[in-house]
Amino acid sequence: MANDGNYIVYHGLLCPKETHSFESFKYAEEIKVEDEDIFTVTYPKSGTTWMQEIVPLVLNGGDLTPVQTIPNWDRVPWLEETRAALVLDRLPSPRAMVSHMPYHLMPPSFFPSKAKVIYVTRNPKDVMVSSFHFHKMASFLDDPGTFDEFLNKFLSGQVLFGKWTDHVKSWRNSDLGDRILYITYEEMVKDLRGVLERLSRFLGRDLSEETLDRVANHCCFSNMKLNAMSNYSLVPQEIMDSSKSTFLRKGVAGDWKNHFSPEQDSKFTAVLKEEMNGTNIKFPWDEE
Ligand code: A3P
Predict the structure, then answer these.
(1) pLDDT one-digit tens code per residue, 32-89
(2) H/E element holding 8?
(3) Is pLDDT at 4 greater than 80 in this prediction?
(4) pLDDT band at 26 (very low <50, low <70, confident <90, very high)
(5) Which domains does the chain have, with CATH numbers?
(6) So what's the pLDDT on residue 256?
(7) Per-residue pLDDT tens digits for 102-140
(8) Which amino acids bring their CB within 6 angstroms of ligand 1?
(9) Closest-CA residue to 131 (of 21, 20, 259)
(10) Relative to the CA of 44, which ligand 1 atom is closest?
(11) How far apart are alpha carbons 61 and 200 in whole angstroms?
(12) Ligand 1 pocket, mutate which of 130, 164, 224 (most atoms under 8 A from CB)
């Protein structure tokens, strides 16, 4: 591990010092994963906050109390962040956590456990756009530079948690069998209700039609944007400046089309295609 300005470098991955420390990574490495634990794993800007809203509601049968009273970072904490050591012991069972770790960096006790994983993937072009705006509003991250400069950083993996392709490939090759459920952000945008049904089956919950409707309604973009426990408005302005961009920014699929030039699109597509070559992983956005 090393220091690099705003970041800690953990196994070659850049992670913000604001929320991570050497101790927090050690804590994550030593955690005793329980069979009932549920991890939502994402590459940053792929729908983590959305899942921090959804998973507790699916687990508790649609009781809105936790999502209306507990900030998302304590409700479903990040495994590798400093808050984990403070709140993990207080989580109800089954414990729900989020993580941006690639598969091989999960805690050793995760692998032999029966803990489940929900892995959310998002079109990397939209991930990059979302991250670009996030870097502008978050004072604890480096300035992204121009869009073109940030695109090059993204493609070379000089961004939070490294290359998108490495992250996705690590979890697609995870060998976790029925312990892992793959979801895309785009499916959630298109058919949240359908995703909730898949999720509740995966988590062994039998939710009524009425409950599924209530959860879907509560977790739509416009409602989450109003929820102070989830929209990051509790974070001081000097750390996250909502006048530059809001955390819940647009919440759509395909915003990259408003940002990429044809040349940037061709370059991005070519690099991703080359790096995903031979994996047999197909995504809904591949044909766009
Ligand atoms: P945009 O910046 O494209 O709007 P993460 O939580 O992993 O950091 O991801 C943040 C992205 O998820 C942001 O994307 C945010 O708006 C989007 N998001 C969060 N909640 C959402 C919801 N209920 N519906 C749609 N998108 C949501």
Answers:
(1) 999 999 999 999 999 999 999 999 999 999 999 999 999 999 999 999 999 999 999 9
(2) strand 7-10
(3) no
(4) very high
(5) 2-287 (3.40.50.300)
(6) 98
(7) 999 999 999 999 999 999 999 999 999 999 999 999 999
(8) 42, 44-50, 126, 130, 133, 219-221, 224, 248-251, 255
(9) 259
(10) 7
(11) 9
(12) 130
* Spatial contact of 122 and 46, defined as CB atoms under 8 Å apart: yes
Question: What six digits make up the tokens of 240?
Answer: 């996250």
Q: Tell which phi-psi region holds residue 232, choosing left (phi > 0), alpha (psi between -120 and 50) or beta.
A: left
Which residue among the candidates 11, 20, 100, 133 is catalytic per the annotation? 100
Nearest to 202 by CA among 123, 281, 119: 119
Q: Using a pLDDT cut of 70, give the percent of the chain over it.
A: 100
Tell me the sheet residues that pair with 89. none
- Which pLDDT belongs to residue 253? 97
Total-model pTM:
0.97
Q: How many CB atoms are closer than 10 A to CB 93?
A: 9
Active site residue 133: no
